[in-house]
Fold:
Amino acid sequence: MRKMLVWVLMLAAVISSPAQAKLRVFACEAEWGSLLNELAGDAIDVDVATNALQDVHVVEARPSLIAKMRKADLLVCSGAQLEIGWLPQLLMQAANAKVATGPGNFMAASQVTTLEKPASVDRSAGDVHPDGNPHVQLDPYRVLAIAKALSVRLGELDTPNAAKYQTRLGDFETRWQAAIKRWEVKAAPLKGKAVVVHHSSWIYLLDWLGMHEIGSLEPKPGVPPTSAHLSSLIDVTKSGGAIAIISAAYQDSKPGEWLSERTGVPALVLPFTVGGDDQSKDLFGLYDSTIDKLLGVLK
Amino acid sequence: MRHTPLAFALTSILLVSAQAADASTDPQIAALAARIQALETNAQTLQKQAADALAAAQAAQSELQQMKATKQDQAVAEVSAAPATGSTGASLNAFNPAISIILNGLYVNHSQDPINYRRAGFPLLGEGGPKPDGLQLGESEISLASNIDEKFYGQLTLTLASDGGQTTTGIEEAFIETTALPDGFTARAGRFYSNIGYLNSHHTHTDYFSDRPLAYQAFLGNQYGDDGVQLRWVAPTETFLEFGGEAFRGENAPAGGAAHSGVGAKTFFVHAGGDIGIENSWLAGASILHADAVNGEDGFSGRDNLYLFDLTWKWAPRGAFKDSGIVVRSEAFVDDRKGVVIDPNDPDALAQTLDGKRRGAYIEGLYRFSRTWDVGYRYDKLWAASSGPYASDFDPQRHSVAATWHNSEFSLLRLQLEHDEPQPHFIDNVLTLQYQVSLGAHGAHKF
Structure:
């Protein structure tokens, strides 16, 4: 056994010695992967842990993710307990002190104010997040604030490229501000419109576009839709004048379709994050697609 | 701007006095006229300045409007200066550890009286026997965990279990672990479950069945935990690769008697894992437990080398295991012992030499067909030794099926049926109904 230990230590020395030149970033969600690409391009290596077809509330702490976490210099996640079911386990198993706390640990929701922060929490209210709603990626102003903080963080961790990150942030900000203007003009007809949502993950988008939510397919956050609850939504959906029943690409589309059949209100699957549909190749595409699809049901 | 009326007032006064002084001397008039002219110029300058100020104010206003348009930007960014940690507050409880509680209860019905239960070739060890008949509290536990400081993490898990009508409390785990060692190393010390095999390091409440596989029951007394130290290292490779070793006191089965001055058991383990596409993930491991026993629970004294091999495969459509997926897992055990056995229940028993291997394995499959339902099947088999004190011609086996309903991540109800054949012509059909819930802090589960 002692011999084996010596071998392991030697192997450790051999494998861990070559220093990686590029900053390696572990992004929990696709939107942050895309943002990192905007802010750093090929100056960094990005591993994106999840895709748009997975529910990031419940992801398996897969061995491949432990391996990726082990090598990361920076961790970029939504935070606000969105990833609480798997991220702590990955951090514990990956034994990478660089990203466990401190500058290597970047939580997007901590960079902005969150909405729907509950005054008290109780599991009988479903899967509520004590730090507020973590799905901040669909408010462009918050995304910009996060981009600024993230760019600074990249610069701190990778000083030789700090100037590059700053330039890229400037470029991103210009394009993003222009896009916001464009989206706001385009989405003006959506103002004041009501929707029924699958899960309470749209508050930032609805808030931004001046829309509102009149019901949720999930009786409580994180609790799967029940037929009794769906039936109770029929009247609400009709009388509230909902323009659509929206769900994310990763969610089961059946409950929304069920309600749609009984109310005549279209069920609409929105990408929710980068990669959620063909058009959502990056953050810009995500917003373009989301707004186009919402406008599509108005016609 | 304020000066303008004053200037006008002054000018008019001067004009009046100028008219009044019409008859006076010419030089005086000329001087006054010059002063009036100067004041008029002054007034004009002031007017121009006022206009400039107005323009500036208008510019400021438009700027303000622009800022209003981006006020959200300001509002959302304002917290960025604040620390990124969660709740603050002066409360003394702010640093309380995360508390999570598992409650677990069972109804068990055996077709054979559990008192008559013997396993051919495998004496019952630890909690590795059948559960009693009837309603009972399963193992309920309270776990406290927290970072201790910037270098250590600590966890304490207390168990409450029913044992023959008595409620016993125990320390299941109590360990500290490093969080800041460089290069992927983690060290742990205290009482904890060994990282050998797959299920051994997992708490039973994460299992797919209400009891452990026969191999775990027969070779590890359900689960091997002891007082000890652990060092593990994760390699910086694309494929997950983890190496580790442990040294334990050697008090619990399969060790015993805390041999070698209380360092009676050592382990070494390797785990590897990865993804194949986005829908398939795997985890495999090979481990060895080297234990020296002195008057162990099963009467064994000597050395025991236990080899464990595990493989887990998970498949889920789109990699989203929440709603559907399949898990296949298998573990194989080879138990190689050399020593003597003295029947612990018979004070007059003679020592019998033991030198041989016994084997055990299980394979289980879980099919999750919705977010709330899954069904599982498990096949267990043990291969007894052909000679020696544990010799048996019969190899115990068992079939188990379970259906589990998950109301949420935090609660489940399970129905399990087992067809257990621990000895020839002895078939125990077992029905188990189980509830299991978790309260408090949201636990993050291992793969």
In short: Chain A has a mean pLDDT of 91. The first strand of chain A starts at residue 23 and ends at 27.
